[in-house]
Amino acid sequence: MDFLELARKRYSVRSYRADPVEREKLERILEAARLAPTAVNIQPFHLLVIPTTGREAELLRIYNKKWFVQPPVVICACGIPGKSWVRKDGKNYNDVDVAIVMDHLILAATAEGLGTCWIGAFDLGAAKEVLNLAVGVEPIAFTPVGYPADRPPEKKRKPLSELVRYVSW
Amino acid sequence: MDFLELARKRYSVRSYRADPVEREKLERILEAARLAPTAVNIQPFHLLVIPTTGREAELLRIYNKKWFVQPPVVICACGIPGKSWVRKDGKNYNDVDVAIVMDHLILAATAEGLGTCWIGAFDLGAAKEVLNLAVGVEPIAFTPVGYPADRPPEKKRKPLSELVRYVSW
Fold this sequence. Notes:
The structure is a homodimer.
Chain A: H1 3-9, H2 23-34, E1 45-51, H3 56-62, E2 73-79, H4 94-111, H5 124-130, E3 138-145, H6 160-163, E4 164-166
Antiparallel strand pairs in A: 1-2, 2-3
């Protein structure tokens, strides 16, 4: 598949079927995440693969939308900012690293025909508690992983003229 | 191309040919970036397309490696953190947004046969000054964009067993 076609195909899926996700597909999307680049190749992240069945109530404390727990699996991308690369002016690249990893995972899932949705609007305290995260491990984004039960909406984006500046010297 | 194959093909290119980058390819990689998701679809980013020819000395103040200015174009992904989405606990998602945009762009470039390299280790002050960035616009990552003159090194990554935790309840 053409990459632009893949980028067009990805959308925020907000309704999922309960159908299982094939183990091979899950392994391929995790492998895509593993291949993602991180600053100075430190790889300061953890991916949590969370089965939803029977734990819906706890997971809804993290993000309270019914579609969050419709698919069989939710993935949480966590950073370890205390281990990540820091530029000499103090800028920590952990969020960038984790976002690259999750972007790889989400695009790989799209290529497998799976639906996902970037979720940043979760309850941080509930996430740390429910998932029993170690001190220093910071959840950055969640996504459900499953088969879509909705249809892609029209993608609304600013025109390139608003987003891109061609530098002329 | 299979997405996993694409993720394997991308590497940090540290030697470039001076050959021009076709306008259509540049437009396709910018379009892929435009399609990237951002928190609450705010799209709080700018992409700067920077021609290198004749401005090598100024660009080397930003990042002092000769291969940075070998290709005809460098792209800088900037965030506008004052406009980006902030979670109720205060977490700002600008770095995540910009990283998703740049990851889309870099993977799209790879699909076009172009080389790139994520660069975070630039001089922040020099970048703002040389590129005359407005107050509130923060450069997050640069990449050269051009045809590779080197060969991919072996990709070194931690095993999945160190990066992934299967949550069992």
